[in-house]
Design a protein that fits this description.
With 119 residues, this protein is of the alpha+beta class. 31% of the residues lie in helices and 26% in strands. The longest helix is centred in the middle third of the chain and has 18 residues, at 66-83.
């Protein structure tokens, strides 16, 4: 079987609070990398921007995209909240780091036109 699935999930912090410091981003990256392996997902790229995280992942078609997305959000939230960095503790209240929703965009794909054969 040949496949190339590269979704681009975007996770937004609860209430779009701007808590993405370098320390929080490092915690998130570490949590994402730990979760990906056991779930047959590869973290290809990761970036943050104040109130959201961009990921680029690859995974096999036997895995439903919602499973790694929710697992990534849950594990990273637990990890960041357990460490209680001051920037998170002061900005968020309660037990939620991420907004309940997320966005996933598809990346790349097969060309639409058939390649012309060389004669």
């Amino acid at each position: 079987m040949v496949y190339k699935l590269h979704p681009h999930p975007i996770f937004v912090t609860k209430y779009q609070k701007k808590v993405m410091t370098d320390r929080v981003a490092d915690e998130l990256r570490s949590a994402f990398e730990e979760v990906c392996g056991p779930h047959d997902v590869t973290l290809d790229a990761f970036e943050t921007n104040h109130d959201h995280a961009h990921l680029l992942v690859s995974y096999p078609p036997k895995v439903a995209l919602s499973t790694p997305a929710m697992t990534l959000k849950a594990a990273s939230s637990i990890r960041v909240l357990a460490r209680h960095p001051p920037e998170v503790r002061n900005a968020l209240c309660g037990d939620h780091f991420w907004s309940p929703s997320y966005c996933v965009l598809s990346c790349g794909g097969a060309p639409q036109a058939r390649p012309k054969s060389k004669a």
